[in-house]
Amino acid sequence: MVEENKDSPQAAVAWMVLAGLCFSATGVFVKLSGEVGVVVWTVIFGRSAVIAVMTYFLSKIQKVSLSFKEPKWLLSRCITGFSAMACYFYAIPLIPLTTAVVLQWTSPLFVALFSGYLIKEKVSPFLFGCIGIAFAGTVLIISPSFDAVEINAIYALASGILSALAYLSIRELRTTASSESVVFWFAVFCIIVSLPLSAKELTTLSSYEIQILLGVGITAGVGQIGMTRAFHAAKAAYIGAFSYSTVVVSWIYGLFIFDEVLSSWDMLGTLLIVGSGIILATTSPKTTNVQAP
């Protein structure tokens, strides 16, 4: 069963906020995995295995088909999504959680920027002002002194750009594949790619490390379904900005769980990026029944 091609901004916002809350928790578990030395590929495998099982049984309960008709867009979603996840999971243990999340969630702005060119959605010229503000914020986080670059932060930013491309692929799949189908096959793809890279470590995991991986998978699974449903339900440029709920929750987690305090430059850069996203969200038109490109 494939969702009807009808936009619903209210439902999309609700799904995206849920996704943001879950993805914040995922970041916490990924950071914990880094503290105990679990490699990125093992985290990706654990996350994907849990999501594949969750999505499979959810599709059976809801009697939703896992079939798809656009292999080109599904493969695009898988490749860009896997690359984005690898960059993001690598960066999280190495930089403050909020910084990683903010740079990764520049993706909604890149979604808005790319959507007009790649999937032919109408985008307001005002958007480019928001992109400029967000770019200034990104520079403040990555290179506040303009003479040195935080390399680990670059991985998080690369994740944001790659995630934007993945989200646009999801948007293209909205009329030919269910949300569950997109999530399930992405998880299967990640399992296949990450298994050879993580097989050795998988046999030596402690019970605590397994619990962390389960936490990554469960929170990411719910977040993935919420995010996919959100992009099925409204224009990519409109709904992407609401993902910034993740930033606030991640800041709280970083402060109280990991004792992370952001520098003044990081705070200013975060405010510029989040502010531009909020402006985009409040100025994008609410539309209904938008036809597939």
Account of the 3D structure:
The chain is mainly alpha-helical and 293 residues long. It has one domain. The protein has twelve helices and no strands. The protein has helices at residues 9-35, 40-62, 71-91, 97-104, 107-118, 127-142, 151-172, 179-202, 207-233, 236-239, 245-257, 264-283. The longest helix has 27 residues, at 9-35. The chain is globular, with a radius of gyration of 18 Å. The model is unreliable at 1-5 and 285-293 (pLDDT under 50).
Write the layout of secondary structure elements.
Elements: H1 9-35, H2 40-62, H3 71-91, H4 97-104, H5 107-118, H6 127-142, H7 151-172, H8 179-202, H9 207-233, H10 236-239, H11 245-257, H12 264-283
Helix pairs in contact: 1-9, 1-11, 2-3, 2-8, 2-9, 3-7, 3-8, 4-7, 4-11, 5-6, 5-7, 6-12, 8-9
Provide the descriptors you would attach to this structure in a database record.
293 residues; disordered C terminus; disordered N terminus; mainly alpha
Distance between the termini: 20 Å
Count of beta strands: 0
Structural class: mainly alpha
Sketch the major β-sheet: none
Q: Describe the global form.
A: globular
Whole-number mean pLDDT = 83
Helix content class: over 70%
Q: Report low-confidence residues grouped into runs of 5 or more.
A: 1-5, 285-293
Concise structural overview:
By secondary structure, this protein is mainly alpha-helical. The chain is built from 12 helices and no strands.
